[in-house]
Write a structure and sequence with these properties.
Elements: H1 6-13, H2 17-39, H3 47-61, H4 65-91
């Protein structure tokens, strides 16, 4: 009997289910953040960063720790950039 490779194991175990669910929840959260920011006159896109954080949380549940750290790190960096852009827009002086 041969051993299964990683792809076969993931297919049997239903891997990425939690990451996909987390990503979808992250997209919804990012969309809500964007909506709130736009009502305040700031245009941002936090959906990608929020999706990465959601996916990272899902990967923790799947015990995919290296993938989780990667996604969480990229998501946090993305949210910091989004927050920086939002602050820049909010504090910008209006053009005359």
């Amino acid at each position: 009997m041969r051993e299964l490779n990683n792809t076969e194991i993931e297919s049997v175990a239903g891997a990425w289910l939690f990451a996909d669910i987390g990503s979808a929840i992250g997209f919804i959260a990012g969309s809500l953040i964007n909506s709130g920011a736009s009502s305040g006159g700031v245009t941002i896109d936090s959906t990608t960063a929020s999706q990465q954080i959601g996916s990272g949380i899902g990967k923790i549940l799947e015990l995919n720790l290296s993938g989780a750290l990667s996604d969480l790190g990229q998501g946090v960096v993305g949210l910091i950039k989004v927050a920086s852009d939002a602050v820049s827009q909010a504090t910008a002086t209006p053009k005359a």
